[in-house]
Amino acid sequence: MTVQKTTALLALVAAAALAVAGCGGSSDSSGSATAASGSTSSGSGSTKLALVAYSTPQAAYDKIIPAFGATAAGKGTSFSESFGASGDQSRAVLAGQPADVVAFSLAPDVSKLVKAGLVDASWNQDAYKGVVTDSVVALVVRKGNPKGIKDWADLVKPGVQVITPNPFTSGSAKWNIMAAYGAQIQAGKSPAAALAYLKTLFTKHVAVQDKSGRDALNTFAGGKGDVLISYENEAIGAQQKGIKVDYVIPKNTILIENPIAVVSKTSHPAQAKAFVQYTRSPTAQRIFGKLGYRPIVPAIAKEFSFPTPPGLFTIAKFGGWSTVNKQFFDPATGSVAKVEQAAGVSTGG
What are the φ and ψ backbone dihedral angles of 240, each rounded to 5 degrees? Predict the structure, then answer.
């Protein structure tokens, strides 16, 4: 199934890239956070929670946090917010970045905190399996789709330049790669042929690999590349901000599942748990939905008309993230690490 949407309104304000060293600071202010990376504060109250999140959902949390503050459970609670590449954010929390709630791109970035004793092992045992939003990997193209991009095969045609983040810093990049690889398997190719596709894509067509999905969007919005591999919600968000893009959802693509969890060493466990619970409320899920995320609450999901690609698959197709990370993304032995090394890209994270 192919979907294209267009909108033209205003110009994008480019966001600064996150530096891990800059994750620790925050400033006291009222209202919602405005920076796209680093740390900021929002709201005012007697309890302050630190939200550490991946780069893309800031616009959603800018709306969800005030809505939570208007509830009985959220009354008197304010937030510091830090947004950046999911892998970097996870490592920052491991290194001591204050956090009460973490919201990452993919489950392994939470699993690292579980191993370190920073998140309870039961974090994903709720009705939503720890997930707060869904999305799918999409192909973002220039307005009017001048290169005629329809599916994954078009990305490796002569003259096509692709933008996608570095999988050794960005969670969204891992989703992108597994979508591209899985699409080849779905089409009947062997694992070796699917890896050969990735090698061709990354050594001959990928022009820039930024640290995060948001940085990659900014690079594309700045005029670099013909195709951006990204979340569907990033494409919709770009359109809402007036970026002149279309997007294509390939017939075969992966379901993105974004996790959220309470940090076990939080000084405010009741408020942190209440906030995580609120992110699954109808109000919060509608906010996510209006910003292009696929709600994970079935009743709210029915209010939106997100298309279901006929060849949609999940990471479970390849044994889950634990297996995938070892097989594909181990910096020393992973098959994708070897592809990236052949492309001259750092795999050190």
Answer: -65, -25
Considering the domain architecture, whether residues 24 and 96 belong to the same structural domain is answered as: yes
Q: Which two tokens stand for residue 106?
A: 């993919």
Sign for the pseudo-dihedral over CA of 279, 297, 37, 65: negative
**Is 145 contained in some domain?**
yes
Q: If pLDDT is split at 50, 70 and 90, which confidence band does 41 have?
A: low
Total domains in the chain come to: 2
CA 138 to CA 136: how far, in whole Å? 6
| Residue 43 pLDDT | 52
Confidence band for 31, pLDDT divided at 50, 70 and 90: very low
Give the CATH number, domain containing residue 314. 3.40.190.10
* 51 strand-pairing partners: 81, 101
Q: What does the angle CA 36 – CA 40 – CA 41 come to, to the nearest 5 degrees?
A: 135
For 178-192, the pLDDT digits (tens) are 999 999 999 999 999
Spatial contact of 231 and 289, defined as CB atoms under 8 Å apart: no
Strands (E) across the chain are located at: 38-42, 47-54, 77-84, 101-103, 131-142, 162-163, 206-208, 227-231, 245-248, 252-262, 294-295, 311-313
- Indicate if 244 and 292 belong to the same structural domain: no
Residue 5 lies in a domain: no
Q: Which helix (H) or strand (E) holds 90?
A: helix 86-94
| pLDDT at position 24 over 50 | no
Considering only CA atoms, which of 326, 73, 2, 342 is closest in space to residue 201?
342
74 in any annotated domain: yes
Exposed/middle/buried for 160, CB within 10 Å: 0-12, 13-18, 19+? Answer: middle
**What is the value of pTM for the model shown?**
0.85
Tell me, yes or no, whether 48 and 116 share the same domain.
yes
The answer on 142 and 105 residing in a single domain is no
Residue 8 within any structural domain of the chain: no
Tell me: do 31 and 147 sit in the same domain: no
